[in-house]
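Re: export button greyed out
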Amino acid sequence: MASAWLCGAESEEIMKPYRQLKKQELEQLRGELEQKYEEAKSLGLKLDMSRGKPSADQLDLSMGMMDVLHSGVDLNDSEGIDCRNYGVLDGVKEAKQLLADMSEVSPDKMIIYGNSSLNVMYDTVSRAMTHGIMGHTPWCKLDKVKFLCPVPGYDRHFSITEYFGIEMICVPMTPEGPDMDLVEKLVSSDDSIKGIWCVPKYSNPQGITYSDETVHRFARLKPAAPDFRIFWDNAYCVHHLYDDDQDFLIEILEECEKAGNPDLVYKFCSTSKISFPGSGVACIATSPNNLKDIKLQLTIQTIGHDKVNQLRHVRFFQDIDGIHEHMRKHAAILRPKFEAVLDTLEQELGGLEIGSWIRPKGGYFISFDALEGCARRIVEKCREAGVVMTEAGATYPYHQDPKDSNIRIAPSFPTPEDLAKACGIFVLCVKLVSAEKLLEEMV
Amino acid sequence: MASAWLCGAESEEIMKPYRQLKKQELEQLRGELEQKYEEAKSLGLKLDMSRGKPSADQLDLSMGMMDVLHSGVDLNDSEGIDCRNYGVLDGVKEAKQLLADMSEVSPDKMIIYGNSSLNVMYDTVSRAMTHGIMGHTPWCKLDKVKFLCPVPGYDRHFSITEYFGIEMICVPMTPEGPDMDLVEKLVSSDDSIKGIWCVPKYSNPQGITYSDETVHRFARLKPAAPDFRIFWDNAYCVHHLYDDDQDFLIEILEECEKAGNPDLVYKFCSTSKISFPGSGVACIATSPNNLKDIKLQLTIQTIGHDKVNQLRHVRFFQDIDGIHEHMRKHAAILRPKFEAVLDTLEQELGGLEIGSWIRPKGGYFISFDALEGCARRIVEKCREAGVVMTEAGATYPYHQDPKDSNIRIAPSFPTPEDLAKACGIFVLCVKLVSAEKLLEEMV
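Workaround output, generated via the alternate export path:
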């Protein structure tokens, strides 16, 4: 490991759970770790594992997208519509096909939006606030609106609901997805609960994919609120790390139809981490009733989204096979980074019982759970040593992790060399803070 | 005129005001016009003067924009930021400079948005509804919110306020802009009036540019509502028809500052009718206080707008001089079309006193005022003969033109040949409906 300069020296003696160490042993260990930490700080590093940004070489994969449209080709879609001009509210035909294939629905269930699925989700909540859903009371006219938030989860989801004053109720994640006993109980008993945030595949931050049973139970929910909706953010639908070991997620819209709940889900998707973040194409897939409801707003809100960019994506990727092929190239870059982080965690923290993590098969994150009460201090120590981690607490509504335990690791952006260094600092900080914490408990 | 096949036959005898004709003369005229109209209908035309869409040859002017970014150039902005990735919420530096120059403000007053200024305006109203403006009560919590709507005006503005249940109060346009006596009186006396829609330069549909005095009076408004804002849609800021005969509009933000009213205006702008409609770049320019307020939302709403497209625009246009040069090419295409319509109106309707119009020096529209009670019938007759006009009433809130008089003519999209034909049909329908109307009045 490239992080050998920071790790290993104390490892010969301390390979057993920290909790089994005597006070004197722990004190000696803390001393050694502090010394290493001071050495690390003196290196003046400036590394970032905080956000799920693709790296420059991942972005290079899509540079061909800049060549497919040029002054020598026409910018008409397959129906002969001039994509340079006004018109076509819900997306050009072939873009709907491409994103429908990616979303595993039929194109007539799609609306293509602009560059950001986050913006589509914001917009969906905002519309519900001002105009309500399918004729129901606008949420801004209600005394109380609540959302369920599986935790740990995606900070930007929680920011949207917080911004609109929506009360957030935490639901713990299990290895199968959100705790469905709790979801069913809450949703069926409280009509002020209007939604739930879900990242059903390679979830942010844990990389968990909802099990078949979880999806079945979602589709069969009997919400007390007729305007309850599942916000199904399928951000990592094609974002596998391995060709031969992928998670499978059941398509929810069809399950909802089967269950007689066709209008229950808004499904979001985008090419942000496929082509260029911020210059991709986002979409929503949902039932005909919901689409009709959304289009009432859409005709007022915009003259239509960027059709030239839709065309650019289609001409570059061609079809869903092109996207899968492209994602294999992303995986080839991401896989060693994920493995480097996971191997470091395993090698440096395995058996010490001062942290736990899940080995994801896709997505953008690794979720680390430190000893209770340690996350903020670990992130703070990392920062002092020049390594920026996602703020502790960010994976919980209101930035409040009740156990102060969860830390999101984003391995995608740094170079492999930087990642190894950053990881070395991280595990060092985990050890040091854990040792301190256990010593405090002994007092 | 290419429309000679439809016009002229009756013109030898009838060059005087229709109102001066005796009943028998009018009846004979109506007969002749009906015959011509039946001939016109039999041609089976399919022409459209309904929307302000650029023509294909205008769009061709920007095809070079498809070449400036390709896989052989980097997509870094002038500050070295990789525009392909996440980040940069309010726009890349050089795009802010370009659109600031176009908006005649400094770049620090700008936020660059996505592809549609209409969407920015929608968003601005929506945010005021859910969160209020600069700490004031959200509009959705108020019993009544009203907007002033200069008429005739832009239908899509009125659609936004109607969608949010905002009561619209008509204010008549004068050749100098909105009737400022009325605006001042209403705004200063009623704190439920929260905004006014303005297209201050080459207004939609009349092509009127607000006079210096009008802008001064806007900047010096003393609204009863502290959260009153002027929605200043400078859609046609560089959209001149003539190089040597242009309207000049005073920059409003600076005037507001001078008047001690710095936060009074949201100024909107976009490249929609400069590059490609729907694939352009939109922006808002406003005071530091308003910007701060807007950014509270923006950080929640989006991961940032399409920076690659911002870069594409800057690399193509280079600077404001590049935009002006480009707009001269648009003008060269648009000018003959405007002149063809105006000349036809002049030649065929001049002196008949059955309609009036303004000769605009820029923008996208010609506004025609028919005899009272005739607009709907004229538009209907045009449609029956295969010429689609903007729906009568569209230029008024709730689509209700109290005089049923105003018709918006959009000359940009058809080819010159089609435009001549469409215009011929239009003036024929104006004559026929006017003759019918005057005969009805005689009964």
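Chain A touches chain B through 55 residues (CB under 8 Å). The button fix ships in the next patch.
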